[in-house]
Specification:
Blueprint: H1 5-13, E1 17-19, E2 24-27, E3 30-33, E4 38-42, E5 46-51, E6 54-61, E7 64-67, H2 71-81, H3 97-105, E8 110-114, E9 120-124, H4 132-156
Antiparallel strand pairs: 1-4, 2-3, 4-5, 5-6, 6-7, 8-9
Helix pairs in contact: 1-2
């Protein structure tokens, strides 16, 4: 189903990126930048320019920019704006067997570090603090358990 030119323009407005200093005005020998927010998306053959409240889809030709006025031509332009997603070629890392054996032999709670002389050595892992919610819960548990202990010691006497 062919989409109308207005629907195509509306869809392209959402995909544009903001460009600064796009519009300039030349007066004599002076060139001035017009402070207007312009949003733009382009490909090798087409340009979509959105300057609120108007938007235009144009074809780049040798003579300049030609405004596209037909829906089918606009659909061809939209296809050129699509970004191709490249699949990543993830290759598994090959670890030497000697290194894998050495890492398996490391005791828990330690990591591999380097000393001042540059030689590798075992370093104790840093114990991270608990988050505030967990820390508060632990302190309230401690208070409750210490109260219970106090009561039991009083009864024994």
């Amino acid at each position: 189903m062919a989409r109308s030119l207005e629907k195509i323009k509306f869809g392209l407005k959402l995909r544009t990126t903001k460009k600064d200093n796009v519009l300039t005005l030349r007066m004599g020998t002076r060139k001035m930048v017009i402070p207007v927010e312009a949003r733009l998306i382009s490909s090798d053959e087409y340009v979509f320019l959105h300057i609120p409240p108007t938007a235009e889809l144009m074809k780049i030709s040798k003579s300049g920019l030609e405004v596209i006025t037909k829906g089918p031509d606009a659909e061809v332009a939209v296809k050129t704006f699509r970004r191709r997603r490249r699949a990543r070629n993830v290759k598994p890392v090959q670890m030497p067997s000697a290194l894998a054996d050495a890492l398996r032999k490391m005791p828990g709670g330690y990591k591999l570090g380097y000393g001042e002389d540059g030689k590798p050595r075992l370093v104790k892992r840093r114990k991270r603090r608990a988050t505030k919610k967990v820390a508060v819960a632990k302190t309230t548990r401690r208070k409750a358990t210490t109260r219970k202990k106090r009561k039991t010691t009083r009864r024994r006497k």
